[in-house]
């Protein structure tokens, strides 16, 4: 019975990750360019283009480190955490596929935008704070 319980609970626990909620919410607020409490896909794409200085449609960890702390000094030292959080496939690059996946996971009402409340709900499901 214990083995059965472990087999059921292990995948759920493996999906959880340690998160810095304050950093994620600060990042959310920074990419909400029009300050309406939602991140539209166009805002996310605009921010990604600013970070992707090599213009190869892939954000590297070095690009993220340089851009994030320059845009928001309070993100200094948090760049690697943010990069790893958004690099869903762990390819070493944040791509449009990663952004697409985040949008699908977070956008519960399918309105094409990620509201802060939706983002918080998403974090509650996947994060250990």
Short overview:
The chain has 129 residues and is mainly alpha-helical.
Characteristics:
single chain, 129 residues, mainly alpha, Recoverin, domain 1, 11% strand, disordered N terminus, EF-hand domain-containing protein
Notes on the protein architecture:
The structure is a single chain. With 129 residues, this protein is mainly alpha-helical. The chain has a single domain, classed as EF-hand (Recoverin, domain 1, Orthogonal Bundle), CATH 1.10.238. Helices cover 60% and strands 11% of the residues. The protein is built from seven helices and six strands, in the order αβαβαβααβαβαβ. It has helices at residues 2-15, 21-31, 41-51, 61-71, 79-86, 96-106, 116-126, and strands spanning 17-18, 38-40, 59-60, 93-94, 113-115, 127-128. The strands form three sheets. A two-stranded parallel ribbon has the order 1-6. Helix 4 (61-71) packs across helix 5. The longest helix has 14 residues, at 2-15. The model is unreliable at 1-14 (pLDDT under 50).
Indicate the structural class. Answer: mainly alpha
What spatial order of strands do you see in the largest sheet?
1-6
The CATH level-2 architecture is identified as Orthogonal Bundle
CATH superfamily: EF-hand
Amount of helix = 55-70%
Quote the beta fraction.
Answer: 5-15%
List low-confidence stretches: 1-14
Residue-averaged pLDDT, rounded? 88
Largest sheet: 2 strands, parallel
Radius of gyration: 16 Å
The domain tally reads 1
Number of strands: 6
Per CATH, the class reads Mainly Alpha
Q: Please tally the helical runs, counting DSSP H or I stretches of 4 or more residues.
A: 7
| Separation of the first and last Cα atoms | 30 Å
From the spread of the alpha carbons, the general shape counts as globular
Q: Order of SSEs, N→C?
A: HEHEHEHHEHEHE
CATH topology: Recoverin, domain 1
């Amino acid at each position: 019975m214990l083995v059965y319980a472990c087999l059921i609970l292990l995948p759920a626990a493996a999906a959880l990750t340690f998160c810095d909620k304050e950093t994620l919410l600060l990042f959310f607020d920074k990419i909400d360019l029009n300050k309406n409490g939602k991140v539209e896909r166009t805002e996310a794409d605009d921010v990604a283009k600013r970070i992707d200085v090599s213009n190869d449609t892939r954000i590297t960890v070095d690009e993220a480190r340089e851009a994030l702390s320059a845009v928001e000094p309070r993100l200094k030292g948090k760049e690697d955490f943010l990069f790893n959080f958004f690099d869903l496939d762990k390819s070493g690059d944040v791509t449009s596929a990663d952004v697409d996946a985040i949008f699908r996971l977070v956008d519960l009402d399918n309105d094409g935008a990620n509201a802060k409340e939706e983002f918080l709900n998403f974090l509650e499901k996947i994060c250990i704070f």
